[in-house]
Amino acid sequence: MKRSILFRFHKNPELCKDRLRLLKELNPEVNIYGLGENINRSEELKEAGLEDIHVIDDKDSEWKWMNGDLAVRDWFKNKGKNRDFDMLHVVEWDLLLAAPLDEICGHISKGSLGLSGLKPIDEAENYGWSWITGEYRDEWRKLREWVESQTGYSGESFGCIFPGCCLPRSFLEEYSDLDVPAYSNDEVRVPLIAEALGYKLERTGLYPEWGQTSINRYFNATGDLIHPEKIRGELEKTGGRRAFHPVRDRIGKDKLMDWRI
Question: Which H or E run includes 8?
């Protein structure tokens, strides 16, 4: 399977360069493309491993945060469709992957989506997931209606968290042909539309269950930062975790490689 990385960023070029160097060290044959902002010194990221950078100028930061799938869709329509890959790995600037993609995501089938934290939507609702309850309940209803009108699908779906998702090329081709509305957010839309299009959803294993302290201390989508010493402890452990989010401390490539067993 030919893999490519889409590296999403919006600030902190020095940290981004560290992450890119690590990704390239661990995945020397994988092309890395950029999806980000016109931040100061962004061109230096190409020296660290980016092939090119795609910038969406007509949307604000909140839109990009909520609509990662639509940002990826924009990249694919403008650039990605001309790139050679079977599977696209979306890697955020604060997602630390300390092992090759083949090791972390090798279990994801070529034509399937790899998503983290997959949870049946009724369980997510009982959990009180804000993207389908409260102020977003009406948007969730509108999204289901839109999907049914476009595809005829009215079955159940899943919620997920977006960091580290694996998107097959065929899905991106079909997704880019749809005029996907910005109802709710990416973590709701992608699983639903993928199932409506007939794709299998597979678990990345990066975030096995919601709300568990034993998982959140290493990987979460709530903004609780992961400390370098926790990362070191896992990397020095046989069979330890190799993916962490969010990590915003600078940890040099050489130091991380030394920590790895």
Answer: strand 3-8
- CA-angle at 188, arms to 131 and 140, nearest 5°: 60
CB 219 within 8 A of CB 195: no
State residue 61's pLDDT score. 86
Domains for the chain: give ranges and CATH numbers.
Answer: 3-259 (3.90.550)
pLDDT > 80? residue 42 = no
Burial 164-192 (b: 16+ CB within 10 A, else e): bbbbbbebbebbbeeebeebbbbbbbbbb
Which two tokens mark 166?
Answer: 């694996």
Question: Looking at residue 108, what DSSP letter applies?
Answer: S
CA distances from 46 to 14, 95, 164, 192 (A): 12, 19, 21, 35
Give the model's confidence band at 129: pLDDT under 50 very low, under 70 low, under 90 confident, else very high: very high
Segment 159-198, tens digit of pLDDT = 999 999 999 999 999 999 999 999 999 999 999 999 999 9
8 Å CB contact between 199 and 208 = no
The beta strands (E) that lie in 45-186 are given as 50-55, 87-92, 96-97, 113-120, 158-168
Mean pLDDT in the chain?
96
**Separation between Cα atoms, residue 255 and residue 101, nearest integer Å:** 19
